[in-house]
Amino acid sequence: MSDVLARREHALTPDETAELIRAKVGDAAVLGTTVEYGTFTLHVANEHFADVARACRDERVLAYDFFDCLFGVDARDEGFDVVAVLYSTSTGNRVALRTRCPGGRETPTCPTLTDIYRGANWHERETWDMFGIEFPGHPALEPRIFTIETFEGWPLRKDFPLASRVVKPWPGVKEPAELDEDGNVIERQPQLGDAPGPYELDKAMAEQAKLANPQAAVDPATPEGEEVEDALGTEAEQASDSGAVLAGDAEHELEQHEDVRSEARERAEEKRKAAAEARARKAAERAGEGAEDGEVAAAAGGAVEPGEDQFPEEATSEARPDGTESWGNESDAPPVGGDSDAPGVPDEGDIGNAGEPSAPGDEATDAQPTGGEQGDAASTGETSNAPASAEDSPATPVAPGEHMPGDERTDGGDADAPHQGSGPSDDLDEREPGPDDGEERS
Amino acid sequence: MSASDLSAREISHPATAPGENLNLEIVGDGAFTTADMTLSVGPAHPATHGVLRVVLEMDGERVKSAHPVIGYMHRGFEKLAEHRDFRQSMALVNRHDWLSGMSNEIGLVLTVERMLEMEVPERAQWIRMLCAEYNRILNHLLFVGSYGLELGAITPMFYATRERERIQYLLEAATGGRLHYTYNQPGGVKIDLPKGFLQQSVELIPDLRKRIQDLEDLLLGNEIFMARTKGVGPLPPDVALSFGVSGPTLQATGIPEDVRVTEPYLKYDEVEVPVPVGENGDSWDRFYCLLGRMKASMYIIEQIHDRIPSGPVNVKLPKMVKAPEGSTYVRVENPLGSLGYWLESDGGRTPWRLKMRTASFSNVQSLPYLLEGTLVPDAISVLGSVFFVVGDVDR
Lengths: 442, 395
Fold this sequence. Notes:
The complex is a heterodimer.
Chain A: H1 14-25, E1 30-36, E2 39-44, H2 49-58, E3 66-74, E4 80-87, E5 94-100, H3 120-131, H4 164-167, H5 198-212, H6 223-241, H7 250-287, H8 293-300, H9 348-351, H10 374-380, E6 396-398
Parallel strand pairs in A: 2-5
Antiparallel strand pairs in A: 1-2, 3-4, 4-5
Helix pairs in contact in A: 6-7, 7-8
Chain B: E1 37-41, E2 53-59, E3 62-69, H1 77-81, H2 86-96, H3 101-116, H4 122-150, H5 155-175, E4 184-185, E5 188-189, H6 197-219, H7 223-229, H8 237-243, H9 248-251, H10 259-262, E6 274-276, H11 283-307, E7 326-334, E8 337-345, E9 353-357, H12 359-365, H13 367-371, H14 376-385, H15 390-394
């Protein structure tokens, strides 16, 4: 591994990378670098896009061998950007090569990376399918990879409307962008009249229902509805329990029941009417004096009032920043104190045989396989660098035949016979909530 | 690929092709005139796990070339995400790979949180890890079961389904969902774990260990299974990297690449993450890595049991979640490989661009390479062992 220079400890910084690329490809190739939110972006001149990618792959100290992805981004009036994300398994670095396609919004083109990375093939087909960006030199952009062959337009361009927003008008707020800072609805142009949408339909149906049903329909889930049932139930019970009914006098009993039922119904009816009136009054107050019945109904139906909070503050009221309160989940915490094993420190004896799982970052032992010898890599000509191997990766590789940490916790038994399990699984439904201190492992 | 310099590659017949052991000569071009046949596997073939179509051009039993046809499940998630705010997008991302909803959600919330520079409570991070690892086992169990099914072993599917049921019961208790959890939100998780969850989780792991050992005993050393998978569809590491293959398929080639180790997120830097690696990159190694990843997940879950602190599980969100202007790229280790989200924001409430770099898309792209020169039964063995979800390919 001595000739593999690129290793984690000598991974280049973004500035060094840009400098190296400038030296190898030319000063004009790199337009600038940005590091935002932990993402290193190298802005590349479009005509040097492929050259820079090739340098990234072939330079021994860069060794970007893993092709992560390639995609387009709509850059408004200036056309389209293409971003290719590369990753190095040996240095652990990641770079995003970003380039502005010439040709504006009409004929955007970008050099292809298919000669450099096999994976670029489908990603470029996807980018062409979604944005219409041509990649001269690509083996076959057609047929369209995601959409159907006869599809017209480039779906991910910003000027391509989302079909479900065009087909029919939708009541209320349909885009999050239609709310202002405080969650109020930004007034839209009245488009509802263009075609009868669900809102108009609802109003029409409500009118029809009112005509067909002079009584206001009662939702059984409303408190009034429950009261009706309650009243019926209790009265009926009292009637049967009253003891005045002789055995066998079924007719009398029935009559009595009927009486009780109708009485209860009348009472419930009165209550409901009163409630309905009160509601209508409230709604009328809200809707204003000259409001029609239909609108009153609509207002009472829970339409979103301007100014109403779309995201109530109470939604996350459980999370209070002061740590003084009890969270109710203390019982889930590991047992504290009185235990030789400090919480948070895995017991060495528990983990396994001495020295078996090495901590991340440790040097791997000889027994572990060395994937991707550089001899193979060099002969195939894919990259001039060896990909990450056991020696330079922080991972703890476990090759076939070796023990996975934690394996030894399996009960031994007859290794040849397939294990029959430990009987039928307990039904979790019926299990009582466990004791609070039950988190200790055996 | 014909125009590129990458196509210069010899067709290497697998060493253990049936017939070679019997000293039979497989007659190809030139011996007598045969017409090439085109066989369309899919779009609704059990071996393709969804609506993937693979067109095989064949010379007798030998696959001359394979052309995956994708796009049957394209639902335009990247476009839809541009019309939803960050909390609404959570319901989108747990659907593109429907077997790894938890990892997908974590990928998106990490992206948003990084742009908002939001502090996430410790407990929420541990809960996310716990759920993600259970989700990983769920995902892998399905593939272990179905891969056995494709090779003619029916029992593993039943075993796997039984274990999945118990884990799903646990996750359902915590999140309310069996497949689409929508459990994460920027700043934490929706709600704390229910009482008794950790208790049941602690009790579940030893059982799970035994039963995954059963699955391993059933398949990994099985003579028939080994004959079908050893040496079938080998993938060299440099080719895998060039394709952008990740997850168990990449680990099988011998590269110990795992985002949880190389770019730790959440609290993965505080636990030990064992990474199974293969030797030849063949179907058997891919399957070995899948099983090994389940064991690694159980080992991680046991560490989480010891470490999970108490405290709040989310932070109070502002009325509007608005990512500041800029762009970032976050990778997480999905069950099927590395998942990346490129989030570009113009400062508004919806993403300007949300690129979903999904593991299956890149993995499936390597199929033409893997299938070239195999026999038809081996093609099924390869198709099943390059683990992918079609919704994740098409998005």
